[in-house]
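User: Fold this; tokens only.

Assistant: Input:
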Amino acid sequence: MHTMKPNYLKRYIISSYVLVWALIILVAGPATMLFHAPPVIMWIIRNLIAWSPTYLLFIGWKQFRPGETRRTFIKRCFSGKIKPLLLLFSFGLVFGISMVSLFLLSVIERRPVASYIDFGSMSLPLSVFLSFTSGPTGEELGWRGFMREEFNQKYDFLKSSVCQGLVWCFWHALLWAVDSDFTDWRAVPYILSNIVVITSLTVLMNIFLEQQNNLLYSVLLHFGFNVVYVFLDAGILFFVILIVLYLIVTPIAVWIRNRLAVRGKH
């Protein structure tokens, strides 16, 4: 009798969606609506939720990767060489795109760049620390560790990257409704921006990881993107500009990657 091989990837994706939505509804929702938790507590709760892809992976390890140990997996995820300049570039690339977007916004709206920056009530070091210990360190073992390997076994580079990006993107979907200022018509360009930018970020991350299979590159790239939003106070036009920039930068990056791959074969 033929038995179907378990689809570990599908199992992980469904579980990660169920877990994050349950945490948002059952933990983050009551914390903000019923208990009116202060910003720093809400940030810690968001960070705990952001780590859900990683602790889901390790708690349910036998359900997702029964033929391998956790230690072997982690060692492979950080096995690539750490090249300081490449590491800095992974951060600088996406941080730079956001800064260019902010500059273009300031030109269009004729406002100084500084007027879009709001440091909020928390100290700068604490804000940066909480940003770094959120998605950048919390999500990468799940998405670029486990999920990337699984998709790469099925598809070529670009299709695998786009599939990973869409899974990662819609994992945030509930947050678009409950944790966004754009609830009117602006929700449409905001959601479109999330789809384009998060998918593009995944492609860019995978280009770095293809060069050196070490998740520190995707952690720094993720952080370079996230840290801007800690201080950003900009309208929907910023996200529209971001769409355009990523639709320019990402195809160029893929073209360079493909040229280098062809050159490497000769």
